[in-house]
Amino acid sequence: MPFHVETGQEVSFSKTVGESDVYMFAGITGDLGPNHVDEIYMQKSSYGRRIAHGALLIGYMSTTSTMVTAQISVDDETPVSLGYDRIRFLKAVFLGDTITVTYRIASVDDVRRRSTADIEVHNQHGDLVAVAKHILKWVSNKA
């Protein structure tokens, strides 16, 4: 059976991280840490202002995973995430930053029905702010 994605296939997603994104994420997850919601607190830090949740960035990474699979019409298999490895937050993402997430298929394992992708997140200045590896498992739709 041929594989649904190929090495080098790539998608990108850009988003300006707004105050509402951070507050809604904080409310959904319960992570109301002052790093994310308390401007006065963060003014005293070396960052000087609030920063986005790292887990919110992982959510944006998930968006690109969905984008790459949405390009494919598959009747016999369903792609499911096996997880993210080697996640690193290299620089802070501030409220108001525009980030671009790039998801690039790095390898395909036809026998195990898995694909692995390299993910990079850059801010509007071109700074690399986060990286990760993502594994998709292509599960048979047959009962």
Give a structural overview.
The protein has 143 residues and is an alpha+beta fold. It has one domain (10-140): Hotdog Thioesterase (Thiol Ester Dehydrase, Chain A). It has helices at residues 19-29, 34-37, 39-43, 54-70; strands at 10-16, 77-89, 98-109, 114-122, 128-140. Strands 1-3-4-5-2 form a five-stranded antiparallel sheet, with helices on one face. It starts with 9 loop residues before the first strand and ends with a strand.
Notable traits:
143 residues, alpha+beta, Thiol Ester Dehydrase, Chain A, 5-stranded antiparallel beta sheet, elongated
Secondary-structure blueprint:
Blueprint: E1 10-16, H1 19-29, H2 34-37, H3 39-43, H4 54-70, E2 77-89, E3 98-109, E4 114-122, E5 128-140
Antiparallel strand pairs: 1-3, 2-5, 3-4, 4-5
Q: How does CATH name the architecture?
A: Roll
Q: By CATH's scheme, which homologous superfamily applies?
A: Hotdog Thioesterase
Largest sheet: 5 strands, antiparallel
Total of DSSP H or I helical runs spanning 4+ residues:
4
- The N- to C-terminal Cα distance equals 17 Å
Biggest sheet: strand arrangement: 1-3-4-5-2
* Share of helix, binned: 25-40%
Compute the number of strand runs.
5
Shape field: elongated
> What Rg do the Cα atoms give?
17 Å
Based on helices, strands and strand pairing, what is the structural class? alpha+beta
Average pLDDT across residues?
A: 93
β content, as a range? 35-45%
CATH topology: Thiol Ester Dehydrase, Chain A
Please, how many domains?
1
CATH class equals Alpha Beta
Q: What is the H-and-E element order?
A: EHHHHEEEE
Low-confidence stretches: none
